[in-house]
Amino acid sequence: MKSFQYKVLDRQGTRSSGVLEAVDDKQAANILRSKGLLITALYESDQLNLEALTGRFSKPKADEITNFTRQMATMIGSGLPLVEALKILKGQSGPGLKPVIERILTEVEGGSTLADAVDGSGGGFSSVYVAMIRAGESAGVLDQVMAKLADTLDKQREFRSKTKGAMVYPTIIMIAMVVIASIMMVFVVPKLTAMYKDFGAELPGPTKALMAVSDFAINYWLVVLLVLAGSAMAFSRWSKTEVGGLIVEQITFKIPIWGKLKKDVVLTEFSRTISVLLGAGIPILDALNIVANTLGSRVYGAGIKQAAVFVEKGVSLAEAITRLEIFPPILSQMISVGEETGKLDSVLNKLSVFYESESEIKIKALTTAIEPLIMILMGIGVGFLVIAVIMPIYNLTSQF
Of 74, 142, 224, 336, which sees the most CB atoms within 10 A? Predict the structure, then answer.
């Protein structure tokens, strides 16, 4: 896609200008003429303006996509044509979302479906989002599907914020501990050790260990930073590989409380997303393949793909889930009930609510468990510092 700047005259003789995206200048001219505009200038834009640069390097935020979806549902449900709705939203969007809507609008005006336009817009829309829009367009209920999609995005955003919020307090405390320990090692301990050396006293083991750590931190701090940064980068790259990601995820699932919380988060997303896709009329096999790539879990993604293979061979979804040990029994039992009653989407939606409530309980348990653990670690650290600093002073006073 290329950007073109234009100057036009409307039927009343009013001059206006702007920027639009098109494959080439012919398509850009056709778009403008289809609106009844007389083109006075049309040339490819160099995209050097601040707004274009900002839009190019920024992506729409989650709340922007949610608001865009809900507003689209409202406008389309009110009978407003799709092109007009996109034009209105483009005019009131921020720099992150505006270029995305411009690309979508250009594709739609060129005859593309909304689903294909969204898929190729580069706005970070998930495959679930695209699949639901495509299903809504096919069934003629795009406004209803987008309204349901907006509700789902709201729930996902709220749920993720709760999960991330549980780690804010522990993270702040841990950072504070590292900063305080660094200040002690770099500024406080060297002065104390210099005083001890002047007295020529025999230093106990904890004090010698503290002095060694302090000297190393002062003399080799750059090496330490480089090693830590290199290790973090190497671990990050390794964890993004197929084998590394599986190993890290399997270890994470074994951590007390946190591992169970991660599993409940994945199962919540799985149940909610499958429910939404099935409610939009997407076949179960397609829904499974879509969800497998959007969960953000290699372990469960591989399990869902295996379940899809079983379903493709004629096995029911409940039976396919039962064959996989990574899924809890309640999931297959509830799915079996949904398949028997013909209300699988409704049952899965209720199951997502159940797992979400379980996750919230585990979040509270996690924060409750972390607070005393942090206090214990702080106590051990402070106790070691006190012993290392006070023992030499006690030895000195006992000599007199």
Answer: 142
